[in-house]
Design brief:
By secondary structure, the chain is an alpha/beta fold. Helix content is about 20%, strand content about 25%.
Length: about 160
C-alpha cells in the first residue's frame, strides 16, 4: 500500500500565481522537486482576507516608532490600516491548514502576512528586522512548522 503524501501549505505566489501586492509572483523553481514528494496546498492570505491584487504595499508597524516588537498594525504606504484584512486572511489560511491536515507551511519571506524570521520594519525604507508576518505568527502559534522559501532545502 502506498504511503499517503503529506499536505504542505504554501504561499501561492511561490508557485507562480500572480497574487503579490504588485500583481506579480515570487515563483521559486526549487519547489518543483518538492511537488513530487508532497501535496502543496496554495494560499494567499492577503487575498483570503479580501484584499485586491494589485494592492498598495503594506508593512507591520507597532507603537514603538516603527520598530516591530510583536503583533502590531498593518498599514499601507499611504497610511491605510489593513490590519483586519490581514487577520482575516490569517484565520482563513489556518482553516485551510486544519482542513487539509497541514503540519508544515512554506511561506514567502519578508511578507507582512507570510514573512517568517525577517520582515520589513514598517517604515517603507526597505529595512528588514527579525519578526513574523500575521499569518506566519498565527500558524506557528497553532503548532504548524513554518519555513521561508530559503529553507526549501530542509524538505
Amino acid at each position: 500500500m502506498e504511503k499517503k503524501r503529506e499536505n504542505v501549505l504554501i504561499s501561492a505566489c511561490l508557485l507562480g500565481v500572480n497574487c503579490r501586492y504588485d500583481g506579480g509572483n515570487g515563483f521559486h523553481d526549487g519547489l518543483m522537486g518538492i511537488m513530487e514528494k508532497y501535496n502543496l496546498i496554495p494560499v494567499c492570505p492577503e487575498q483570503l482576507g479580501g484584499l485586491e491584487t494589485p494592492r498598495e504595499p503594506a508593512e507591520q508597524i507597532s507603537s514603538d516608532a516603527g520598530i516591530y516588537s510583536g503583533p502590531g498594525r498593518v498599514v499601507t504606504c499611504s497610511g491605510k490600516d489593513v490590519t483586519d484584512s490581514f487577520i482575516k486572511g490569517a484565520e482563513e489560511t489556518l482553516k485551510l491548514a486544519v482542513l487539509y491536515g497541514c503540519q508544515r507551511a512554506i511561506l514567502k519571506e519578508r511578507s507582512p502576512s507570510c514573512g517568517y524570521g525577517i520582515v520589513y520594519d514598517g517604515t517603507f525604507s526597505g529595512t528588514k528586522i527579525p519578526g513574523k508576518g500575521v499569518t506566519a505568527r498565527l500558524l506557528s502559534e497553532k503548532g504548524i512548522l513554518v519555513y521561508g522559501e530559503s529553507r526549501i532545502g530542509d524538505f
